[in-house]
Amino acid sequence: MERTLIIIKPDAVQRGLTGEIIRRFEARGLRIIGMKFLQVSEALAKKHYEVHTDKPFFGSLVEYITSSPVVVMALEGTGAVQAARNTIGATKPNEALAGTIRGDLGLEIGRNLVHGSDSVENGQIEVANFFSDDELVSWARNTDAWIFE
Ligand code: DAT
Ligand code: MG
Q: pTM of the prediction?
């Protein structure tokens, strides 16, 4: 089963959109296997955004994600990585389609509300960066047979 890491970013938490965002992933059918509330350390932020180290926006990206608490979730499901990306919408909220989290709730790239892993491999890596094995719960939902074929 694929895994993806979701971060409900500081702007979304500050704006009181945590529940609204969790609701959309739950409704999509993705199964929550880990969730916690924390303030991301600078070290963890730099590791998480390592591929962007040389980009001009790296400094502001790290500042943003560490500026205030976040909610992180590990989600599981068939095709979970792409499904979550589609639910999140395009990186630039002003280009994201209506119906997506960014397209419905955001305007600017530096306040784009939510992170989702971009590949199956990165889903595994990012979940492991944020959660220890004993923080992840292996469970079956009574609705699984109505969501997963
Ligand atoms: P995504 O978050 O959609 O996976 P990404 O991995 O390309 O996008 O970039 C990570 C974050 O960095 C993104 O959510 C917002 C910021 N970012 C990306 N490109 C940017 C740019 N050209 N200018 C400013 N911030 C940018
Ligand atoms: Mg990305």
A: 0.98
